[in-house]
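Quick one, tokens below:
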């Protein structure tokens, strides 16, 4: 269903309410005080969705699929753990994205075809696999260790993300 965040304010409020409900149920709480509202084995599928101001910080998620999704405004996954799969293939991050402290726990994490159009921060300890992703020039970014930006032929506004030691290949874990 097409969605215009600027034009449909009621739909935007419904979407943000649903996102808040997810946030509340995907945080396990502290070890000494676990949350009784936590949904432990949640698989999220946001394929093709337009997500506005998504905040899933300090969550535990079994898997997430965002194939072709569009993230508008800040998208924050700070401190979140993806236990089995994190599929961000063909995603567009229109604004700032925060993956600091995010743990990619499975062998099926991918950002192939993802576009970063604003600032991005993966922190200094992330093991995210960014092969096939690209970024628009001119924004501050912190990529995971071992990743760098390289110019894209015939696209002066874009760079591609490649491994320093194996250009274009995901790192062995």
């Amino acid at each position: 269903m097409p969605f215009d965040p600027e034009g449909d304010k009621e739909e935007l409020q419904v979407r943000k309410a649903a996102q808040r409900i997810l946030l509340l149920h995907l945080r396990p709480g502290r070890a000494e005080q676990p949350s009784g509202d936590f949904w432990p084995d949640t698989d999220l599928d946001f394929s093709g969705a337009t997500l506005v101001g998504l905040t899933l910080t300090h969550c535990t998620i079994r898997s997430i699929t965002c194939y072709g999704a569009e993230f508008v405004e800040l998208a924050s996954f700070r401190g979140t753990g993806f236990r089995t799969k994190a599929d961000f293939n063909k995603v567009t991050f229109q604004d700032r994205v925060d993956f600091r402290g995010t743990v990619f726990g499975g062998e099926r994490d991918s950002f192939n075809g993802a576009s970063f159009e604003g600032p991005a921060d993966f922190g200094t300890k992330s093991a995210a696999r960014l092969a096939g992703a690209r970024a628009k020039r001119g924004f501050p970014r912190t990529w995971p260790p071992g990743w760098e930006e390289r110019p894209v032929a015939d696209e002066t506004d874009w760079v591609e993300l490649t491994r320093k030691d194996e250009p274009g290949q995901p790192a062995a874990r």
